[in-house]
Amino acid sequence: MDGFRKSNAALRAENVLFKNVLDAANWTKTSEVQNVSGCLNWEQKCHVAQFELENVKKEMETLDAFSEKHMVNNKAALKEAEIQLMKVKKARDDFNRDVAVVLHNRKGLKIDAEKARRYIKDQINLKKSQVEKLLQKNASLCMQRKKLQLQLRQKEEVSEDLQEMDFQQLQIGNRYYLESIDCHNQELLYLKVQAGNSQQILNTYKKKLQDVTSESVQLSTDISARRKMLLKTDEMVQVEEQQQVEAEALNRNLRQRLADYSAPDVADYMSATDSRSQLEKAIRVWEHKVQTAEMVLKSNTKAWKLLCEAAGKTSNPYH
């Protein structure tokens, strides 16, 4: 039963929806709504769904506008309530400051009747003065409204008399302005074409400028590298020149020494060689003697130490 109830409710909702679409679109039952089998085809179902969706959107827009209006009103009311609450709080604080005296134990307030009466009277007078000011302002606004209404009626009467003439003048002015607008539109179209051409030329020159800029950067890099290479080459040339000068000076010195060199006699050379051999032999003999003397000195020193130790032990009576 629940299933039948749900299906019947769905069918009733579909019937209501379909009836709304029929009333809005003025369909005929035979030609546009039903086919041979008595059911809606997919195109008709899509149309019904789209129609209902548009109705829902319109209702939502109406509700949004209504809710926005109410929200603005509620915000204004809330703002007014906040202002009134601030005024009440300010009046309460003024009353507590000017009239009431807070007791030290904070259990209540002590109010002076004379002060309270005088404060209430001052507030009443203040409100009366404000009411009088507002009444005067209202009266002046009413006078201004009457003057504006009178001026408006006078302008309407004058405009009724001059309406036909103004209409003809407006037609003439309208034709003039339309012609002027057409001229300006043609001029604007021409300027747009010129601006398009100028933009194309500008883009071409921008591309050329980018190419020239990149080439300039590359040339600057190459120039910097060539300058560094030139500096290194100058340094190498200076080093080579210095080395060449030093080599020439050494060559001249060697040539001078070679020119001044004289070979000794063979007999003198043999005699000097023999003397050197004998000196080397004598040095080796003396070195051997020194080594032998050092060994003898070491053995004698050791024996002397032993004798000194032995002599020290025998001469000590308490040992």
Properties at a glance:
single chain; 319 residues; elongated; two-stranded antiparallel sheet
> What is the overall pLDDT average?
78
Report the sheet-strand fraction.
Answer: under 5%
- Main pleated-sheet profile: 2 strands, antiparallel
Structural class: mainly alpha
Enumerate how many helices there are, as a single number: 6
N-to-C series of helices and strands:
HHHEEHHH
Q: N- to C-terminal separation?
A: 137 Å
| Radius of gyration over all CA atoms, rounded | 63 Å
Q: What strand line-up does the widest sheet have?
A: 1-2
Helix content: over 70%
Poorly predicted residue ranges: 27-37, 102-107
Describe the structure.
There is one protein chain. With 319 residues, the chain is mostly helical. The chain is 88% helix and 2% strand. The protein has helices at 2-25, 29-33, 42-98, 113-161, 163-260, 266-314, and strands at residues 100-102, 109-111. β1 and β2 form a beta hairpin. α4 (113-161) packs across α5 (163-260). The radius of gyration is 63 Å and the shape is elongated.
